[in-house]
Amino acid sequence: MRRRVVITGTGAITPLGHDVKDTVEGQLAGRSGVGLIRQFNATKFPTTFAAEVKDFDLTKYVPEHGPWDHAGPNTRFAFAAALQALEQAGLKGDGKCDRTRFGVYLGSGEGVQDFHALLWVLSQNYDPSTRAINIPGFTRGTLEMFHAEREAEQELHTTAAHLARYFELDGPNLSCLTACAASSQAIGEATELIRHGDADIMLAGGAHSMIHPFGVTGFNLLTALSQRNDAPEKASRPFDANRDGFVLGEGAGMLILEELEHARHRGANILAELTGYGTTADAFRVTDSHEDGRGAIACITGAIKDSGLSPDQIDYINAHGTSTKVNDRAETLAAKAVFRERAYKLPISSSKSMLGHLIAAGGAVELITCIESIHRGWIPPTINYETPDPECDLDYVPNQARQHRVNHALSNSFGFGGQNISLIVSRFE
Amino acid sequence: MPASSRRVVLTGLSTLSPLGMDPDTLYRRLMAGDSGVRAIKAFDTANMPAKIAGEIDNFEAKTYITDKGHRRALKMMSRPIQLAVSAAQCVMNSVDRTKIDPTRLGVEFGAGLMASELPELADAAMASANCQPGAVSLELWGQKGIPAIQPLWMLKYLPNLPAGHISIMHDAQGPNNSITESDAASLIALGEAFRIIGRDGADMFITGGCESKVHPVSLVRQCLFEQLSKRNDNPQDACRPYDRDRDGTVVGEGAAVLLIEELEHAKRRGAIPLAEMVGFGAAFERTHSGEGLARAIKAALKDADAIPADIDFVIGHAMGLTAYDAFEARGIAEVFGPQGVPVYAAKGALGNTGAASGAMELAIGVLALQNGAVPPSRNHVATAEDCPVNVVHNQAKKVAKPYFLKLAYTQLGQCAAAVIKKWE
């Protein structure tokens, strides 16, 4: 029989709070974490707002913050969320388990580039009349201005390595970058590592911020972001007819995944079981999902099959629900294709209506939201749902949290580039 | 753990490297002792502390991508992505698509950060410069800078898009992942694909890696945090893995693709296996004693149901770095004993092809198994005292046993190992 994987710890740093409790209660209250960007002057950007993590202070979590001084937001958020998850699981450096059987798998994101140095040096070495760039001048300038440690910290494998080093996690250590699906994929593949016997425990999740000048620029150029600058809190409106793009968020979500017998043996408190993982690709276009939801359907179906459940047993879907025209329509189609007439009675909500889109960290925080829905018997709403869209005609739990018993919850994440991930968490009894 | 009953074989290889654009040329030139490292031609390196690289000449993605629609997509791809899709095309040209179920074909790639091409940002930078040294105006950037950049700019550089574009070009609707473990990325990607086929999550994978650090921004960043060889006046001899006189690595570029599939799937479509993948292991190394690397090797051997004495040769990560070569050698020695197994180092000839290096160097191992000879490790003259390894050098080594092991690590501690068996 296959090894079963349970969740014994969770941690979160999000625009709605600095732990799981505040993140979930904020969602149940229908609070928006979106506001004008404070980290840099975005007043003249096409989009001036985002869902930022507020007043985050790493020194609350780690006294000797020196080693983390040059780390970017990804690593700093990851550290705090991982610490919470490890403490809840009772696994913080207590020697209670074989550390060589304890690995890390993170959805990683690009670090924050030195925007000002790069562009200022470039401007000083560019002749617009000839369009010539003086490369020796540019390289001399950037060699002087770039900060060596901060440059090294931008690399994509740094966060997972720092966590392993600090928390003494000597097992397999991986990172994946599949855009908006990354932390869900990391959780899915970490589950598979445990099932296969490559590890007994995995710290899995993601941490990411793209709320920086290049990040907002890139998504603005693709016209993927909402530009509802006069009402930021109303901007993220998944499945609403007047949705106009997603809202960038930032933060981290971390889970402790553990082999069931291992968790039982050490008397761990089991929060839920990870029962299903589905993974597919659209193989269609880089920028859009397939119109008929092909990849999403196969992915959700795969996760249900993996869990051994029937579609009828799924009680709640935490949608990818980005608030873009294409995603929300395709995701609705996919839910109808998989759940048929029952799709109309199955509550589906989007955490992104309140948290924004945490990109590589999104899936992990949304899966934690699903676990909490099982515990609390309440599911979070989709806020800003005002005008129904004829193409999105399911029950999106509009505007108010709902009391609802959840035994099995499905979380979807669909990446820019076509990667689809679905995860199922189940009540553990 | 019970071994999976599903066996995984390698049925296709492609390598775009500083030593040629196909595997046979690469292998032949490695056997001849050639070097792909030279003074950088792609841009003016005056003012750079490092002026050399393993650089690919005259690469034109259109040579490989002939479909009109796919050719149009090339303008959305940076050089590393173009290298990746070209390498994938080389492998897929010989696959009869009518015998493949697209939902059972996956893509797993290793990729790293890709730097923006400077001309794409130059007008925006100029429009945003004000009188303040060291910074641009964010207000000007928002008003005049952003509109001066082409709309699809960000897509050219996303690390998940080598795998994304390959899935689109080859209708690969199965699992799709991009591993970002720096220089270990493509070996770990291969390991994950191997596991997914083993657990029946797919039948076939296009797996590999791509990298190009021959770029002004990438090279500047490498100069700031990587130990690069100072032998600019002698490029071909600069990168010297495990050698007494090693003084740093050399950047490189390239892409490698390995097509792997479940054995019965290969038989059904009439594909001839080149080798079998039999084991994979990964671990984290916290102390750099070599202990973590040794654990990854042992896990891979156990997974392969093999013992150290079964291994004919190891292809090291072999960066040419002062501290890390010694660490790696200690890890190898912990499993095989001091000088206990012949070790081949490819980076002396190729430079560090980064996220592509694991797949590229594993491909060299497959060619060595097939041809019965491991190439000499270029630039290894005298083994350093702190590197307790037996390096294949001066001349090629005959292959006598059916297995080899490929290693990769990151300097922060991620370690991986794969065991490959000769197909007989």
Question: If you had to describe this structure to a student in words, what would you say it looks like?
Answer:
The complex is a heterodimer of chains A (429) and B (424). Chain A is of the alpha/beta class. Chain A has 2 domains: 5-112 and 154-426, 3-Layer(aba) Sandwich (Peroxisomal Thiolase, Chain A, domain 1); 115-152, no CATH class. Chain A has helices at 20-28, 73-89, 115-124, 135-145, 148-153, 158-167, 182-196, 213-221, 260-265, 294-307, 325-339, 352-355, 362-376, and strands spanning 5-13, 35-36, 49-50, 102-107, 126-127, 132-133, 173-176, 201-209, 250-259, 272-281, 316-318, 348-349, 378-379, 402-403, 408-414, 419-426. A 10-stranded mixed β-sheet of chain A has the order 7-4-8-9-1-10-16-15-11-12, sandwiched between helices. In chain A, strands 2-3 form a two-stranded antiparallel sheet. In chain A, a hairpin with a 4-residue loop joins strand 5 (126-127) and strand 6 (132-133). The two termini of chain A are 19 Å apart. Chain B is an alpha/beta fold and 424 residues long. Chain B has 2 domains: 8-114 and 158-422, Thiolase/Chalcone synthase (Peroxisomal Thiolase, Chain A, domain 1, 3-Layer(aba) Sandwich); 118-153, no CATH class. Chain B contains 14 helices and 15 strands. In chain B, helix 1 (23-31) packs across helix 14 (357-371), helix 8 packs across helix 14 and helix 11 (291-304) crosses helix 12. The mean pLDDT of chain B is 97. Chains A and B meet through helix 3, helix 4, helix 5, helix 6 and strand 7 of A and helix 5, helix 6, helix 7, strand 5 and helix 8 of B.
